Amino acid sequence: MQVFYDFGRYCQLLYQAIRSSSEFKSYYRNFVSEMIKTGYDSLPIVILAGVFTGAVLSIQTSYQLVSALIPKSTIGAIVTQSIIIELAAVISGLVLAGRVGARIATELGTMRVSEQIDALESMGFNSVSFLVVPRVLASFVMFPVLYIAAATTGVGGGLLAGIITGQVPAADFMLGARSFFLPWDIIFGMTKSIVFGFIITSISCYKGYYASGGAEGVGKSTTNATVLSCIFILLADLLLAIILL
Amino acid sequence: MIEVKNLTKSFGNNLVWENVSLTVPNGETLAVIGKSGCGKSVLMKHLNALLTPDEGVVLLDGQNIFELSYVDLRIQRQRFGVLFQGAALFDSISAFENVAFPLRYFTNKKEDEIRKRVMECLEMVNLGDIGNKSTSELSGGMRKRVGLARAIVLEPAYLLYDEPTSGLDPETSNEINELIVHFSDNLNITSIVVTHDMHSVLEIADYAAFLDEQKLSWFGTIEEMTKSDHKRLNSFIKASEYQI
Q1: Between chains, do A124 and B90 touch, taking CB under 8 Å as contact?
Q2: What are the structural domain ranges in chain B?
Q3: A with B: how many residue pairs have Cβ under 8 Å apart?
Q4: What is d(CA A168, CA A55) in angstroms, rounded to the nearest whole number?
Q5: What is the pLDDT of residues B71-105, one digit of tens each?
Q6: Closest residue of chain A to B152, computed from CA coordinates
Q7: pLDDT at site B186
Q8: Higher pLDDT, B244 or A218
Q9: Quick one: B1-79+158-218 is in which CATH superfamily?
Q10: Sites in chain A below the pLDDT cut of 70
C-alpha cells in the first residue's frame, strides 16, 4: 500500500510543479543557481567518470579482440558507439544520482525538518514552485550538457588509452569512430540524459520535500532518493532502448 | 479578528484535539498553553492553513481560510508573520537577506528602500547592523530576533509565535517578551503565542487557551485565569511556578 501512496503523492507533487511552472518570477533566481550547482559543479566528476570509462573500455576491447582478422579500427568504433549510446548517459546518470540527487534530497529534507518549507509557505510562497520547479528545470538544461562532456571525454579517454598502451593507433581509432558514427546516436544519448535528469531530480525533490523525523529522517530520505534514482535510471535505460532503437 | 470554530484534528488514528473554538479580537494577544505534545503548534499551524483540520473552520475577518483557492490563501498568508520554534531561518543566505527575503519577492521596493526597511526591522528587535553574518554565526537569541524581524518586515496584521522563549536565558526571554508586547501595543498586531512558559503568558497575553485531554480545556482572559478554580489549569500553572 505504501508504494501506491508514495506514487500518488509523487504524481501530486509533479502536478503541482507543472501547474506552478508559470510562476517564473518566484524561481528564476533559484533556476540560475541550480544550473550552476547541477551543471558546472558536477563537471569535474562527470569528466573524470567519462575519461576513465573510455580508457578502460578501450583497453578491455583491445584485449578481447585479439584476432588478426579484426581491424584495429573496430576498437574505435566499439568504444565510440558504446560511449555515445550507452555509457556516457548511464555512468554520468549514476554518478549524478549520488552527487546531485543526494544534495537535493538533503537540502530539501533539512529545510522540511527545520520548518524552512513551512516558513516559505507561511510567507505566501508556493514552495513547490520555489524549490522543486527550478531543480527539475535545471536538470533539463544541464544534464544534456553533462552528457556531451562525458561522451567527449569518454571517447577522448579511449583514444588516449589506445595510444598510450600502443594497442590502437590514433588514425585507426578515429577511422573506426567516424565509420560507424550516426547523428541519431547523439540524440538518443541526449534523450536518455534528459530522462535520467528528470528521474534524479524529481525523485530527490519528492524524497526531500516530504522528509520527516529529524536528522535520521533526512539521512533515510537521501539514501532512498539515491537508491531509487539508480534503480529507475536502469529501468528507464532498458525501456528507452526498447522504444527508441 | 481570528475565530476558530469546532476544530478537530487527528493524525491517522491519533486524535490531537476536538471541537476547539476560540476567538482572538484584533490587537489582542492570545497565549496557547498546555503540556508538551498537546497540539499547541498544530493549532497554530491551522490559523494560516499550514495544516488542514478534519472538521471545523478558521475565520479570518469572517472568511473561512480553508475554502480559499491556493492563490487567495497565499495572499491571506502574507497578512501573517510567523516566528517558528527554531526561527526557521534560510541557512543558504545571510541573516540580512533572510529579513530582506519577503521584500524582494512581494514588493517592488528598490535596493536602498529594502536596505532601509530591513535595518528598521533589525533595529526594532535590537539587533542593529548584523552585516552579512551567516545564520550559523548567530546565537539562539539572535536567531529568534532575526526570525522576528523577518516576520514583521511586511507589516503583518497577525503574528504567530511558536515557543518564542524556549531555549533562551531569562534575560533574552524577557527581551523577546518585551518585543511581543511592543508589537502588540504599538503596531496593533494581533498575536497568538504558543508557549508553556507561564512567566511569559502573564507578561504578554490578554487571553489564554489551555489545551488539555485532547480538547480546549479552558479559555478566558488572563485575569480570569489567575482566579480560575479549574483544577488541571491550576496544577499546570503551579508546576510552571516551581520551574521559575
Answers
A1: no
A2: 1-79+158-218, 87-155
A3: 49
A4: 12
A5: 899 899 999 999 999 899 999 899 999 999 999 98
A6: A123
A7: 85
A8: A218
A9: P-loop containing nucleotide triphosphate hydrolases (3.40.50.300)
A10: none
